[in-house]
Design a protein that fits this description.
- The protein has ten helices and nine strands.
- With about 350 residues, the protein is α+β, with helices and mostly antiparallel strands.
- It folds into two domains: about 160 residues, Cathepsin B, Chain A, CATH 3.90.70; about 100 residues, no CATH class.
- Helix 1 crosses helix 2.
Length: about 350
């Protein structure tokens, strides 16, 4: 593998070391209370987690010498704020209807002062292999959404069709593209045929066109932390409003989405598939995102930070109940999550 392919695989924990100029506020260590204090501040989580677009974006920025923590990119994306409930499939997503990952990635880049080329093809267009090769000559390219079920190097890809994912493409080797997959697969090759199926993302409902990619990042401004925070909070408020304005009929949004799940649990009507989604994905991811928002907001909006911290606690307890499973306990904690979500949305209004 040539030297130009060597981009460090971002820590899938979302806790990348180092600093970005103007962002020192979020890298300071804050004293926390003793662990036996019931009002203790939450300690940041370090570990694995499905932050694929944030990790891939962090690697793209690092390729041009800009080190940004994945959790900061995750927060600024706005993806992890809000909730929506799909009644037919009994699926709760603890994320915003108007902040899908492809939109969120671009939002995060902009808030941090980066200009990043973003391109996509119209539905039915062929994979832009030649354009990708030219772009890779200049540096790595962020690809997504991809369909996990079409990634042959992932041992658990079977049954993953329709699940979105993001990776960083590093370069061509013959008829394969070498990628850093932040799900734990660094420098792995994927044949163009397989990449075509995955990157076309036919089953990813939120995609806008096909073969979406980001490349050639450049810093255009160096915003100070206060400016980043103020703009981010305004973007969070917009995302909440937009989610309510654009949700499809029958899709519950925000606290009402969580309350719809609570009602389903109390009726004993949640199917095993919905329960599995909660305990393996939505709840642990929701805890992590809530913790990261609490971390980001602690200096600039401490009341919001406390709400997100309490949400993390309640979601963690709901996850433990889901693992038992104890649907009555899940409903109790998720009812509190809904109340907190209503307060977060009101505070941002």
């Amino acid at each position: 593998m040539s030297q130009k392919y060597v981009v460090r695989l971002s820590d899938t924990s979302g806790c990348h070391g180092g600093k970005v100029a103007g962002q020192e506020q979020w890298y300071q260590r804050h004293p926390h209370k003793a662990c036996n204090d019931p009002e203790m501040s939450m300690v940041s989580y370090i570990g694995n987690g499905p932050y694929c677009y944030a990790n891939s974006a962090a690697m793209l920025l690092e390729s041009v010498g800009e080190t940004v923590e994945p959790r900061l990119l995750e927060v600024l994306s706005g993806v992890g704020l809000g909730a929506f409930w799909l009644a037919e499939s009994q699926t709760l997503f603890l994320s915003g209807w108007a902040s899908m990952p492809d939109v969120g990635v671009s939002r995060a880049f902009g808030l941090l002062g980066f200009k990043v080329a973003e391109e996509a093809e119209s539905d039915g267009a062929p994979m832009p292999a030649e354009a990708l090769a030219r772009q890779l000559d200049d540096g790595p390219v962020l690809l997504g959404p991809l369909d996990v079920g079409e990634l042959p190097y992932q041992p658990d890809s079977q049954g993953g069709n329709g699940v979105d994912h993001f990776v960083l493409a590093l370069g061509f080797e013959g008829d394969e593209v070498v990628v850093h997959d932040p799900d734990g697969y660094p420098a792995v090759p994927i044949a163009l045929e397989a990449l075509d199926r995955a990157w076309r993302a036919d089953l990813i409902e939120y995609r806008r066109g096909t073969y979406r990619r980001w490349h050639s990042p450049t810093r255009t401004t160096s915003p100070v932390p206060e400016e980043i925070a103020n703009k981010a909070i305004r973007s969070f408020a917009w995302a909440y409003r937009e989610s309510r304005a654009t949700a499809l009929p029958g899709v519950a949004i925000g606290p009402e989405a969580v309350e719809a799940l609570v009602a389903t649990l109390r009726d004993g009507a949640l199917a095993e598939q919905g329960l599995e989604h909660l305990r393996r994905f939505a709840l642990p991811l929701g805890v992590r995102r809530a913790l990261d928002y609490a971390w980001f907001l602690q200096e600039v909006a401490p009341e919001l930070a406390e709400l997100k911290s309490e949400q993390a606690r309640r979601l963690g307890r709901a996850h433990a109940a889901a693992a038992r499973p104890d649907q009555e306990s899940m409903a109790e904690h998720l009812s509190r999550v809904a109340d907190l979500e209503r307060r977060v949305e009101a505070a941002l209004a």
